[in-house]
Specification:
- The complex is a heteropentamer.
- Chain C is mainly alpha-helical.
- Chain C has a domain of 234 residues.
- Chain D has two domains: 118 residues, NADH-ubiquinone/plastoquinone oxidoreductase chain 6, subunit NuoJ (Four Helix Bundle (Hemerythrin (Met), subunit A), Up-down Bundle), CATH 1.20.120; 49 residues.
- The chains are: A mainly alpha, B mainly alpha, C mainly alpha, D mainly alpha, E mainly alpha.
Chain lengths: 482, 638, 518, 173, 101
Amino acid sequence: MNAGAALALYVMGAVTVLVLVLAVTPLGARGRRVPEVLALLGLAATVAIAVAQWGERQTAFSGELRVDRFGLLLAILIVIAAGATILLSWGEPAAAGRRPEFTGLVLAAATGMMLTVMSGDLVTLFIGIELLSVSLYVLCAIEVARGQSLESGLKYLITGAIGTALLIYGFALLYGVTGTTSLEGISARLGAVGSPAPEPLFIAAIVLVVVALGFKASTVPFHMWTPDVYQGAPTPVTTFMATGTKTAVMGAFLLVFTGATHQASGDWRVVIGAVAAITMVVGNIGALLQDNIKRMLGWSSIAQAGYLLIGVAVGTLAGTESVIYYLFAYVAMTLAAFAIVILREREVENGDHVEALAGYGRARPWAGVVMTLAMLCLAGFPPLAGFVGKFLLFGSAVDADMTWLAIVGAVASVVSVVYYLRVVIVMWAPPPGGRHEVRRLGVPRAVAGVAIAAGVAVIALAIWAQPVLDVCADAARALMIP
Amino acid sequence: MATTLSWMVLVLPLVSGLVLTGWPSEPPRAITRVLGIGSILVAFALSVWVFADLLGSPPEERSLTSRAFEWIAIGDVTVDLSILVDPLSVMMMLVITGVGFLIHLYSAEYMGGDRDYRRFFAGMNLFVFSMLLLVMAGNFLFLIVGWAFVGLASYLLIGFWYERPTAVAAAKKAFIVNVIGDVGLVLGAVLILRETGTLDYAGAFAGAGSIGADSGTLLAICLLLFMGAAAKSAQVPLHTWLPDAMEGPTPVSALIHAATMVTAGVYLVVRCHVFFDLSWLAGDIVAVVGAITLLMAATVALQQVDIKRVLAWSTISQVGYMIMAVGLGAYASGMFMLMAHAFFKAALFLAAGIVIHALHGEQNLDRMAGLRKHLRVAYFGMGAGCLAIAGVPGFAGFFAKDDVLASALAGGNVGVACWVIGVIGAFLTALYMFRLLFRAFFGPEPGGGYRPVPHPSRWWMSVPVVILGVLSIVGGLVQVPFGWAGITDWLQPVTGNAPSVLAPTHTTEVVTVITSSVVALAGIALAWWLFGADPARRLRLAGVARSTREVMRGGWRFDEVCDDVIVEPGRTVADVMWAEVEPKGPQGIITGTTALLRGGARLVGASQSGLVRAYAFWMVLGIVAVGIVLAIVVTGAV
Amino acid sequence: MPWVSILILVPLAAAVVVALMRDRRIARVVALAGSTLALAVSVVVVASFDRGVAVMQQVDHLDWIPSAGVSWDVGVDGISIWLVLLTTAIFTLGTVAACQRLPEQRGSVFLGLILLAEAGLLGLFTAGDLILFYVCWEFMLIPFALLIWNWGEGGQKTAGLVFVVYTMAGSLLMLVAIISTGIIAMDHTGGLSFLIRDLQGVAFGEATSTILLAGFLIAFAIKIPLWPLHGWLPRAYSQAPLVVTILLAAVMSKAGVYGLLRIGLPVFPEGVGNVVIPIAILALTGIVYGSLLAWRATTMRLLVGYSSMAHLGFIVLGIIVLDRMAAQGAVLQMVNHGLVAAAAFVIVLILGRGAGTEDMDRLSGLAKGAPRMAVAFLIVTMAALALPGSNAFVGEFFILGGVFNQYAWMAVIATLGIIYAAVYMLRMYQSTMNGPVHGVRDDGRAVEMTARDAIVLIPLILMMMWIAVWPGSLVGATRASTDMALAPAQLADGRPVEQIGILPARAALPATDHPEQP
Amino acid sequence: MGEAVTFAVAAVGALGFGIGVVFFRDAFRAAVSLIGTLVSVALLFIALLAPFAAAVQVIVYAGAIVVMFLFVIAYLGDRGDIGTPDRLDRWQVIGWMGLMGLGAFGAIVVQTSTAGPVQAAPASTDVGSPASIGDAFLTGHLLAFEVTSLVLLVAAVGAVILARGAVQGEGGR
Amino acid sequence: MSVPIGAYLMLSLALLILGLIGVMRRRNPLMLLLSVELMLNAGNVALIGFSRLWDDPSGQVFALVVMVVAAAEVVIGLGLVVAIFRSRTNLDVDEMSSMRG
């Protein structure tokens, strides 16, 4: 019961509560950036603690929380995403009146995500996902004045609620089959029985868990809500959903499938593989004709979920390692892309249309370069991090002789090149109205900072791929070998 | 010693040609003349020196090869840049540079009025260089290179007046037929390379025995080489380009389409006589083609109205004689005919040139008559040429043609058939040549006299015609039946004494001398009767066999047939490819996939109806789908 | 001194510096300096090249992702030495041409992208690691695509997109094939490595080898382009700015063929056996098809584009028939075609600029006012139709020779290409140069080759003449490596031993697969 | 024996009220039938020896949540519900078939499952008692317990934001 | 445990399907949330059934946590419904399809 292990989580919880409390006190007043600064400090502290605890492997709260390399690494990634979101929402009009609440909710969602990736027990996993979802329901609808924001919030809530109900039912069946809610208990129970004739209840459990987690990760049969919610929600929230939620849910996938039920991987490998394949294809095709950049990035995040699922479907050490590495790359590219969209949105009315980006590269070359880097990386062009990630994912698929998955991935990436490069064309094309009418509005430094940092990260992740891969390998081993 | 001189002979025209081309602006006429003509004169002098040097050395040491450097070593074959100096190539060098020099001298004035004076001489020099490279090359590869350069030079010179669309078309036609010939030669060389492992003459001919006499491969080699020769020497299927080549200036026609280029085919067959000796069938095919060309060309020449086209068809016919001779194995007599033909055909062309020059570009026989009073030199040149070419005893043509026919008679039943065709050809030759002579130089002047009286040309043009005239008279004495055989002895080390090499026997000599003399004189008499005695008779006889004469004037419709059979189908196939296959096939892949993707995107977009309940609905279907897949996997797997 | 790595990094660095520059004049100077420096380095690499050695030389090895067996491994050998020199030379001349007629819109980025493409191509030709080969293969796509979009001429912008997506479709399949090769080889050799020299010794077994080879061949076929997959060629060539078309046709088109010889044959010898006939037939179709389309092409660009498709068909034929002479001829022909295609497009550039239009039928009689141009154009035309005596003839003759040794009927069909080459090249030359003066002012003097054009065109012609006069100097260096690349495939295909150049001592004899394999 | 009777009654109650929740046109009646379902489920919990859960169910679920529903339904009145035909008719059939498939799949699974411990647990254990649940909460699932408080805090903040937004929307403070 | 666990599971499955029907049928978000509550109850029944089967308290703990979460969701759901109602008169879920494609 060594409470010390969960120090990182304590700090996050404390900071969240503190910031939310600010909402009511005058300190939260406009002008002074107290909530944001406090939040960033808290996040920095959490990262420091996580790094400090890097070495050991221990569980806290009698098995409910596994503080090991896997959880900590993903937690760090989540905290980075949360920090970036806070920076991106620095001057966000949507959060004008209610900055402390906005920051507090982001921290709450981040805590939920950390909980999900570090959970060792079905109940913790469930409550983590729910905390994350509830915070995001509110965040989506936070710009109450704008109808689309409310609409996206409600859509996300209704479909989210259905997902939660199925998740409960899935976990219930899993609990029913194994008699325990702790993940290690489940894997022990499955291992002990040897490879059982697949218990039908267990099969039903897998179906429901795949469906529920699939919904949260917006894989294809359950992706319908994603484009609408990504378009409706305020852009920093969309960014956080695209980066943070994806990391947390992929962590959940890995925990439940590769971690807990890897003995029965023979059963769920093909199913997750099929879901991954369909997601990649439909995700990419869906994005082809989108003219709203946020909606297009929504579809693109669906497709990227497909690529990530390859690593999960494979169920091997190499698969997990490549998923983690690709998550890092994915977060970096998505942050870069959304940062530029936010930048553009603040300058011109309905800035989320692709045409709004027309000629932006010529008006602000550095923004053009960052956006081009993000798009090329998302498309998987070498030598950027996206390519290295895809290469590792395809490698793990081929290694587990699911080569067909790698081929589907390759074909889907070809389709993805079309719409990613369309953005690059628009970016560098001559501006429609001759000289570009960029209002010389001061570039919000925070957003520019995130954009450039993400751009640099995309290149750095590729060049220093090996050290990052070593860290991911440790994390994967921590997950696989209890 | 001889080889270094030969290198100089080869390089001189090249250097002068390059200097003329590279000259920044239009050089003064004097410099063009000095460079253009001088280089050929020096080359001729050096060739004579080489000839003398070879003559001095014993027969067995007359074949010298000299290697400049190792050109390429690829796969397991190495090819050197090397030249072969032996009696055959020296003889060709003499003819090329000798006649070439006279023609260069002649064209100094003939082209006087042309703006691109420098470009003409550069072209002519490059032509002489290519011809020398062709005859002096030491291996098949550089033979092909020389061959192609000759084709290029002829393209440039035929299309010299490139502003005239007809000249441009003629040049293109000549070049493409030449490329077809090249392809044949390349395939032949490649086959030789495969069989004997080397491209050098010495190695290839030594290895020829191992290919197996009269085997299919050997026949293939010979026929492929002959395909190249036929294209260059304008033999039957590939001869259509020569008459059109008359679009070029007359000196060009003289040099290229009379003296040197067309004889390259003959040279090639003689050079590769080892192959032809081993495959009798190939020899006979070549001889038959020669014979057919001979007869066909003679008939067509009879009907031509343009003075240069008459000479062009006559060249095709005479080369037919040479090809027939070498086909049968009479290499020496073929070469003798080649040399003699060079002299009198050049004389005829240059004389015609004087006529054209004097009449300011007029080439149509109908508008010419009675020129012997005005153009004495042209008359002498044309007369000597006609006498020689007709084979009137005592003249060069008589001895050469007689030697060919005599050898043919001794060559088995194919030889006899060729002899008969040869005799008929000789009769027709005499007929059409003297038709030309009488119509142009005898009879009353058209329209009561030429308005601007045609003034004779200056010495530049007259001297070469006179020299060539004299040569056509004297040239034959080199090899006299029953006397001495200069050419045969000279070429003996090259052609060697393989059983298939033909030589005229005593009896065939006698028979041929008599028949050819009688036939020649008969031809002249008929020509005098038809055209000389009473110019009006020609008009009266115009109605006789009008349709056949029409066909013969059109060159037996070879052009039309060739277009319909080869060119048009190619064009239609290309159009089909361009209009049908390209848009549907390769482009179709692109348009097809883009349409597919666009359709898919619309479909996926449509399913995004924005209705919350629809999403819930799809979720249920998703659950069922995942359940079914898993059930299949589990039951399947278990 | 890791000259080869420096060779790749110089244009890369120059590209970044130039692209970021505001002032066009300085950008021009830096771009020229960058490309000439790259040329100098490549000359050093060529100078220190040892002709006798068949294996990769001057190798710089640096681990990039050791756990995944990926490394920065560059080196030069007989096959790639002349291609490297060709690349730097053509790009230097290309930069000069680009500087002369720099587009006003963002000229510095234009030059930067050209240098970036050069870096990508140099990387491709010197890559010894399959993944690095793939990275460079894709890396050079981006600059060309951007160049075609932003500065493309005529018609809509889709050419660039089609070009990228089409090539990417092939190359991504190649990526899966590369990964499978690496992983399957891992079972044989223990460690995971993507180095070509390690993968060469692995006996994959006929079936796997063929499948993997097919994965590679699709990507190479699109890039060469082989017959059915050339849909992108007319669009890219006609819509790209001419300077880019020069680089595309002269150097980038070699990537596919180079890949076939560098990776296809040595690494998958067993698979090559049953691929020879299909590829040869496609190549032959390409030759005839390309020639016919060139004959009917309307603009000069399309004519030269389709003709280069025919020439590349020849080169592929030379390689695939597994004959030593043909392969060595093909390697030489790659360089020849590069020079000829570059020269041809430079001439189209000069004509197009002078006469304002590239439609052959609307121009004629230009030789009258532009004699120097006529002479240069004639030399290039004669080289393009491989007139015996020109540099292209050397390659073509020995390719025909080699092909004739193996499959005589193929050589005969291939000669159709030569005949049609004469037809369409003469059509191009005559319809613009000869005939009455028409379609251009003051007698075509505008089309005359000025000193600026000469700087670009004359070096190309001089290089062509050097190869025509003494081809041995080039072929000598390539013989050993080509033989080594060919040997395993010849052995697997059961060719008689005397036809094989170097017995692959180190490489395992796949046919026999005897135990003591190293 | 008693357990079978309570199970039967609870099952009938739950399903009956459940159908009511789904098919009643009027919002108010649907909400009330939800209360009925919840109470029947509570009865089930008692049958399953989980009295504490049953109590919480009745108090929290039925008492608090459904009351809120009733309050909002009352607040919105009938403006909320519109009778226009929904636009999913043509897909309806496939939807039903999907559900039937799901039901069948579930039935097969339930029948064939052999889950559960080797020997059945004795009837009278006190697992469901508040003491053991309290113990379980504070030992096995302390973290979950803590985080639920955080979830509720977030829900509260969310409600405040949405409500305040709405009020400001209408000119309130 | 006289009544077999299967019976409880069948009941919870029935409730789940009823909930799904409700979700697909209703167009008023309030009614939708009601159906979702139904599905959550189905989950709880299963949980507590298995807890009884395994004689293990964590099932019931899970059920209680689910109730808390359900409460939180309902709070926000109703808050959203009220907010939307104030900004727009009708509450047709189908109307809310301004974002599509």
